[in-house]
């Protein structure tokens, strides 16, 4: 079996990574380095004859020790250099000239009368080397004078060295044919005699080789071994093929002892992978009773994957298994290095995210036109409207790479629900750096262990999701489950059958109508797996089996994409629940198994589905074989490197809309974040010294003396909000539980709160009382009056009531349904100033557990009492605009006091609405003291009585 498979690709630190590749070491090299390697290889091949290493017929490399004496070897090299240094320049030594040669002359003439002395050859060789260097310098000097001369000179001087004689003598001279014939004869002769050896030279070399003479005296014969009985080694010593620190003598079948030829033309590299949909045109749903009674096929457990050839070509399956088995004995380090150099998309890695799974989700989201982060109905209308959250579920997906990508794309506008095994494979929310984990909530089922096989956990997860999503379900679900199958990689599909089943079952349970589903699968060869795909094909409008570029091409990993869940697929969900209950009762170690859930003849009768599944398996199988061969070739030759890696990484990041920078945490301080938010709010009007000024703004107190001045214009510009304390403050969120409260001149840490990074809100801490008497409970909460920024998204510029909508939506995403450890955060409900009398009518005296009877106000939305300690008045229009009621048309209009222009409310300009900063500057505080009148106490001179305020407002309305 092979370890070339993929389990859940979760964390690069080791959790659920693709088996066994994980996140490899960096083996990047530039294209220039790659070209240098190719050129060096070409050079070594071209001058192979000059090397003491030669290739035998069996393809192995040997070192020639036939010249055993050091001096004889130097003689051989010296003589070789002597004949390779011939040139057309004048020389004291015998030379040849292409231009002056005659029909009877040989281009390789030399003086036979030369003394065969070793020193003579060495001296002549040195002289020829010097002259050769001088010739090259002269050629460079004359290169710019005549291009024709350069070409002629190069062809004349280099042709004898390169052996390309016929093409270098193509000039139309009278002697060209004869010269070409002479060169051809000499060329053949040189090939027969070993390039530099002639019979005379060979004799002189043997005569001068003392080692050879001594060996002959001892009885050595050419072609025989040394020793009394010629028992010595005859073949040259083979060049070592030792790789790294591997044990000596280890041989890997299929990888060692043979050269694997890699043909790059077999590999298809596409930035945009083709998407192949299979659409379901049958609107009739399957019957549960029929499926439960007739379709389940139980029998002995079958783990023989080699026989499962109904949905893949038999020869192709055999070839896949054979290719994967080659890597069984290869160490993970060696395999990882080969994979990292051979995979064109390897350097994409994890980018700014927690692990590689996040970029797989980014890859698939892009390939399917962002159908997950921007879902649409079948009529192409958006599934998530402006003031709604995107609900998603991440199942069997610890540590959470999929979710981090979605939250990165949607910020706090998405609410995630996670379900995975508790423990080592749990979600690592503290490591979410690219997206806000504060809007993500893990859930572990009724049993609390996150075991998706348990039917009780599946039912409780369904109930929890429906409670969070107001009974509608999530817009889409992601599943990336997998576990270690080391040593059993070839049957990973068979071992993962119940995991497939449960992930599909949960999707049919929690995905809303017309919602989507994506799930990781491996091979789809067995009847059980094919049946599962068939049922999902019947439950959704479209399905697609897809392998993203970000998934390593040599493994079996792929994904099923299901689009637009059909109405009325409850029968399929119930059938899958029934099968899982049966598997749960049988247990893992049972000899009896469910081998099929849809009869084979039913699958084959649907030709469109059957052909789609078989073609998909064959296509991915062929691609897998090509890349397995590529890995083997790259393992054999460590100089090979995929040159497109860096370019493809840059291009994919652009297409997937993922920032190309490194993964890093936000190290900014609290004040730096506050300044950044103010820059977003005020833009070019921002000055650093204004931050503390804005944070310390205090509203004017309402007293009898200034009521006419404050409300001298329209009271329709104002809203009133009850207060439960006398301390209004700013809260700044830096992510997770790093929340700070502004106190006079600095930020102080506030425990038991969670806010997304880049959040600035304005409100008060106050106690909430529930119940009566001894059962009464008190909880401290933070109530928001206004907001400036939510997750680095400025909301200050929106109209006041629109800001409140954003804040309520934000808190809905932030809410933890399964935990009571955090301080509650709520948005205060404002009351128009003209209706303040209705607010006073709700005030009552309530006995509080910590004190006597107090003036309280009951909140019917959240069912608690608050002690009423004052009110804040918020202006919602900006100067010089006023809001009035038209008596003629009985509707509101806006009046500009500077130019006298009037516009109906629906036509009001943007500048008529007060921003959060305007409202903060205009705010008025009315803190309750003795004399306000809620307890029937007499009036005080410097305290505004509630009845006086009501009369003033009624008078202004009229």
TrEMBL record:
User: Into which EC class is this enzyme placed?
Assistant: transferase
Record protein name field:
Cap-specific mRNA (nucleoside-2'-O-)-methyltransferase 1
Which PANTHER family would you find in this protein's record? Answer: CAP-SPECIFIC MRNA (NUCLEOSIDE-2'-O-)-METHYLTRANSFERASE 1, CAP-SPECIFIC MRNA (NUCLEOSIDE-2'-O-)-METHYLTRANSFERASE 1-RELATED
Q: Which organism is it from?
A: Nezara viridula
Stretches of Basic residues bias are at 125-145
Task: Indicate the principal place this protein occupies in or around the cell.
Answer: nucleus
Q: Does the keyword NADP feature in the UniProt annotation? A: no
In terms of SUPFAM superfamilies, this protein maps to: S-adenosyl-L-methionine-dependent methyltransferases
Q: Name one Pfam family in it.
A: G-patch
Matching Gene3D superfamilies: 3.40.50.12760
**Where is it located?**
Nucleus
List the GO cellular component terms.
cytoplasm; nucleus
Q: Which InterPro entries match?
A: G_patch_dom, mRNA_Cap_2O-Ribose_MeTrfase, RNA_MeTrfase_FtsJ_dom, RrmJ-type_MeTrfase, SAM-dependent_MTases_sf
Q: Which residues form the G-patch domain?
A: 207-253
Q: What residue spans carry the Polar residues bias annotation?
A: 53-73, 85-122, 146-156
Q: Which GO terms describe its biological process?
A: 7-methylguanosine mRNA capping; methylation; mRNA modification
């Amino acid at each position: 079996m092979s370890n070339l498979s993929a389990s859940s690709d979760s964390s690069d630190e080791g959790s659920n990574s693709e088996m066994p590749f994980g996140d490899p070491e960096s083996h990047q090299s530039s294209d220039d380095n790659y070209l240098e390697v190719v050129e060096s290889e070409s050079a070594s091949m071209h001058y192979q004859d000059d090397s003491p290493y030669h290739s035998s017929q069996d393809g192995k490399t040997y070192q020639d020790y036939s010249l055993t004496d050091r001096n004889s070897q130097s003689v051989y090299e010296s003589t070789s250099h002597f004949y390779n240094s011939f040139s057309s320049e004048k020389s004291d030594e015998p030379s040849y000239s292409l231009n002056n040669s005659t029909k009877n002359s040989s281009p390789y003439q030399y003086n036979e009368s030369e003394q065969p002395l070793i020193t003579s050859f060495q001296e002549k060789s040195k002289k020829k080397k010097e002259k050769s260097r001088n010739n090259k310098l002269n050629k460079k000097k004359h290169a710019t004078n005549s291009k024709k001369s350069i070409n002629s000179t190069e062809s004349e001087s280099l042709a004898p060295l390169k052996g390309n004689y016929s093409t270098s003598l193509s000039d139309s001279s009278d002697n060209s044919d004869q010269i070409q014939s002479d060169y051809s004869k000499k060329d053949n002769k040189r090939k027969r005699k070993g390039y530099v050896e002639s019979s005379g030279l060979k004799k002189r070399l043997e005569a001068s080789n003392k080692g050879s003479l001594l060996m002959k005296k001892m009885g050595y014969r050419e072609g025989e071994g040394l020793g009394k009985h010629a028992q010595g080694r005859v073949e040259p010593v083979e060049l070592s093929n030792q790789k790294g620190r591997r044990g000596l003598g280890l041989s890997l079948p299929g990888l060692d002892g043979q050269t694997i030829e890699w043909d790059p033309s077999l590999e298809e590299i596409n930035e945009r992978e083709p998407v192949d949909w299979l659409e379901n045109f049958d609107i009739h749903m399957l019957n549960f009773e029929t499926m439960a009674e007739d379709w389940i096929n139980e029998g002995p457990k079958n783990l023989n994957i080699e026989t499962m050839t109904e949905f893949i070509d038999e020869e192709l399956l055999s070839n896949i298994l054979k290719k994967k088995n080659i890597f069984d004995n290869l160490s993970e380090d060696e395999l990882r290095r080969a994979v990292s150099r051979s995979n064109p998309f390897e350097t994409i890695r994890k980018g700014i995210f927690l692990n590689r799974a996040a970029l797989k989700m980014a890859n698939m989201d892009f390939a399917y036109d962002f159908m997950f982060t921007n879902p649409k109905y079948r009529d192409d209308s958006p599934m998530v409207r402006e003031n709604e959250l995107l609900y998603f579920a991440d199942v069997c997906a610890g540590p959470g790479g999929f979710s981090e990508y979605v939250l990165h794309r949607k910020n706090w506008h998405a609410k995630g629900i996670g379900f995975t095994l508790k423990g080592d494979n749990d979600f690592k929310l503290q490591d979410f750096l690219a997206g806000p984990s504060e809007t993500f909530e893990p859930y572990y089922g009724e049993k609390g262990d996150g075991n998706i096989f348990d039917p009780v956990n599946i039912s409780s997860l369904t109930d929890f999701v429906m409670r969070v999503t107001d009974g509608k379900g999530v817009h889409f679900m992601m599943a990336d489950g997998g576990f270690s199958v080391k040593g059993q990689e070839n049957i990973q599909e068979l071992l993962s059958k119940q995991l497939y089943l449960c992930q599909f079952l949960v999707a049919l349970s929690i995905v809303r109508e017309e919602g989507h589903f994506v799930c990781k699968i491996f091979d789809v060869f067995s009847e059980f797996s094919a049946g599962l795909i068939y049922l999902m094909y019947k439950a959704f409008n479209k399905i697609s089996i897809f392998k993203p570029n970000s998934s390593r091409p040599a493994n079996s990993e792929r994904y099923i994409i299901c689009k637009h869940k059909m109405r009325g697929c409850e029968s399929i969900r119930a059938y899958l629940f029934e099968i899982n209950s049966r598997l749960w009762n049988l247990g893992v170690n049972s000899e009896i198994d469910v081998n099929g859930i849809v009869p084979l003849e039913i699958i084959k009768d649907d030709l469109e589905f059957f052909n789609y599944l078989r073609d998909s398996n064959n296509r991915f199988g062929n691609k897998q074989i090509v890349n397995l061969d590529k890995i083997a070739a790259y393992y054999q030759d460590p100089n090979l490197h995929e040159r497109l890696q860096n370019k493809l990484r840059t291009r994919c990041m652009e297409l997937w809309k993922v920032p190309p920078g490194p993964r890093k945490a936000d190290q900014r301080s609290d004040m730096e974040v506050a300044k950044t938010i103010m820059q977003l709010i005020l833009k070019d009007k921002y000055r650093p010294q204004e931050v503390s000024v804005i944070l310390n703004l205090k509203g004017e107190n309402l007293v009898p003396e200034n009521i006419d001045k404050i409300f001298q214009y329209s009271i329709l510009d104002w809203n009133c909000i009850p207060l439960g304390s006398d301390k209004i403050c700013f809260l700044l969120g830096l992510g997770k539980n790093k929340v700070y409260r502004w106190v006079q001149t600095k930020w102080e840490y506030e425990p038991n709160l969670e806010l997304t990074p880049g959040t600035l809100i304005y409100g008060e801490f106050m106690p909430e009382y529930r119940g009566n008497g001894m059962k009464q409970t008190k909880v401290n909460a933070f109530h928001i009056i206004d907001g400036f920024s939510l997750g680095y998204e400025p909301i200050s510029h929106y109209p006041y009531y629109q800001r409140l909508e954003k804040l309520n939506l934000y808190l809905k995403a932030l809410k933890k349904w399964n935990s009571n450890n955090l301080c509650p955060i709520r948005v205060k409900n404002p009351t128009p100033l003209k209706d303040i009398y209705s607010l006073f009518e709700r005030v009552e005296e309530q006995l509080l557990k910590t004190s006597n009877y107090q003036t309280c106000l009951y909140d019917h939305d959240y069912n608690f009492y608050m002690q009423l300690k004052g009110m804040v008045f918020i202006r919602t229009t900006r100067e010089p605009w006023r809001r009035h009621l038209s008596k003629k048309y009985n509707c509101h209009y806006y009046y500009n006091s500077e130019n006298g222009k009037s516009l109906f409310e629906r036509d009001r300009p943007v500048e008529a609405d007060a921003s959060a900063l305007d409202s903060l500057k205009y705010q008025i505080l009315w803190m309750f003291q003795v004399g306000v009148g809620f307890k029937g106490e007499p009036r005080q001179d410097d305290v505004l009585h509630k009845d006086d305020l009501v009369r003033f407002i009624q008078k202004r309305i009229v």
